Amino acid sequence: RIVATDCTSGPQEILDNGKFGTLVEVGNIKMLSSAMLSSLEKQHDSDYVKSRAKHFSSYTIIPQHIKVLVK
Questions:
Q1: What gap in Å lies between CA 39 and CA 52, rounded to an integer?
Q2: Which residues are bridge partners to 4 per DSSP?
Q3: Whole-model pTM?
Q4: Which of 5, 10, 53, 67 stands 20 to 30 A from 60 (CA)?
């Protein structure tokens, strides 16, 4: 499972507000380390996370960028 800081550059959107990973407060080292340890101790469904990653693959994103640039 993914652990990310909840900065303003996209993790919340990518992780669907925590559905696909754990979001922690930016700069909170204790919370980040705790979330990382917790993630390492659990079993995860990698196919579930991979399904979300496909939404952001180059095969998906590049055509979307081209569509915007062509307009």
A1: 18
A2: 23
A3: 0.71
A4: 5
Both tokens assigned to 39 = 């993630």
Phi/psi for 10 (5° steps) reads: 130, -15
What single string gives the DSSP state of each residue in 9-66?
TTHHHHTTTTTTEEEE-TT-HHHHHHHHHHHHHS---HHHHHHHHGGGSHHHHHHHHH
Q: Report helix, strand or coil for 68.
A: helix
Q: Read off the pLDDT of residues 5-54 as tens digits, 9 standing for 90 and up.
A: 999 988 999 999 988 899 999 999 999 999 999 999 998 888 888 888 89
